[in-house]
Amino acid sequence: MAHGLPSCVIAMRVLKDICRRVPAWGTLDSWMLELLVQKCIVSATPDFTRPGDVFRRVMECVASGVFLPGGNGLLDPCEKGKTDAAASLTAQDRTNITLSAQHALRLIAFEKLHLVLGVEPLPPPSTPKAGTKRRAEEEVPSEETEVKKAKPSPEPSTAST
């Protein structure tokens, strides 16, 4: 399935980790995960080259209700008839996975991906980005800039004619 798609393999590893850590996702087995990732990538229009895009797409598909009753389901391509690969999931399991994916998408949207992945947040960048310069007034104020700020500007004289 993921042959030739390294971003797909990385997304699978992340999803397997989530299955181990998050109880709602623990009900999915490896086959269901592989089918889910494959179906999500195939159904997308843009070409996914980054693992983060694949991961987000999977979360979007699950959050949209793929597992819920009335959803598209997860058809098993190895079976002759229309067989749902997630048939072993209860209605409560399906709801829990959907809610968990919706919550994960909210966290991702608010730049809290580290909470979804279960890792420490990255420290903020300590140096300004290359190519950006701060103005002299924004840097540490010197005595000269202090004098300029303290010295009142002369008011224009109003001569009556």
Q: Hey, roughly how much beta strand do the residues contain?
A: under 5%
Give the topology string: H per helix, E per strand: HHHHHH
Assembly state of the chains shown: single chain
Number of DSSP helices? Answer: 6
Sheet with the most strands? none
Whole-angstrom Rg: 27 Å
Given the C-alpha coordinates, what overall shape results?
Answer: elongated
Structure classification? mainly alpha
Question: How many beta strands in the DSSP annotation?
Answer: 0
Percent helix, as a range, is: 40-55%
Topology:
Layout: H1 6-21, H2 30-42, H3 51-63, H4 91-109, H5 113-117, H6 143-150
Helix pairs in contact: 1-2, 1-3, 2-3, 3-4
Structure description:
The radius of gyration is 27 Å and the shape is elongated. It has 161 residues and is an all-alpha fold. The mean pLDDT is 81. Helices cover 46% and strands 0% of the residues.
Task: Sum this structure up briefly.
This protein is mainly α and 161 residues long. Helices cover 46% and strands 0% of the residues.
Q: What labels would you give this structure?
A:
161 residues; mainly alpha; 6 helices; 46% helix; 0% strand; elongated
